[in-house]
Amino acid sequence: xxxxxxxxxxxxxxxxxxxxxxxxxxxxxxxxxxxxxxxxxxxxxxxxxxxxxxxxxxxxxxxxxxxxxxxxxxxxxxxxxxxxxxxxxxxxxxxxxxxxxxxxxxxxxxxxxxxxxxxxxxxxxxxxxxxxxxxxxxxxxxxxxxxxxxxxxxxxxxxxxxxxxxxxxxxxxxxxxxxxxxxxxxxxxxxxxxxxxxxxxxxxxxxxxxxxxxxxxxxxxxxxxxxxxxxxxxxxxxxxxxxxxxxxxxxxxxxxxxxxxxx
Length: 263
Prior knowledge:
The chain is α/β, with parallel strands linked by helices. It has helices at residues 26-42, 53-67, 75-86, 98-103, 105-112, 125-130, 137-156, 175-189, 203-214, 238-249; strands at 9-14, 48-50, 72-74, 91-96, 116-121, 163-167, 198-200, 229-234, 257-258. It is globular, with a radius of gyration of 18 Å.
């Protein structure tokens, strides 16, 4: 997002006190998401990006109601659009949290675009990422099990998927292990005439849509700013937020302000 929007000012809130969202009920997720929305609106946000797939899946209408006239973009819709753009077979696989998969938000969004989606909940992946076990044998084995089950489900439903959507914001951090596991599994099975399965996430598409909506300069265009202005807030454990957030951004996060958004 940052390289694509060099002239934007970013305010980011990480709800570290109430995560993970993926195992909670829709009502709880909506309540948490709305409190974060109101906080960002109070900070002067002019455009809201809901980077959490679970919140996008279960609370997007509540968030839009709370945001009022402020535009809201969720990553489910951009993820489905990316799946449509990248799949030649019209069949895609989606991995996500329990809550996201049980909502069938991706299947619904993809279906509206004429794409079939087979979804798989992978609840152990977020804790592994947050533990920092990116290139770890345990993570590799967990991925192999989840993806084996997903590929078997695809075969049972006579789906010829050529695209895998990373349906959780954490998953791009383990994209390389996911691609390795997919390559090994599809090679060993040997019944993928549609070719290798391509792994995508919605980050680039989301940044492009935000830039267009805000009429900001394209990447590489002249900018009056040396770098984006960023403010970071967390509801608990600033040190943990800095550590995990730095991995997501690919650069250090220095200042994190603790805020109380309630229960």
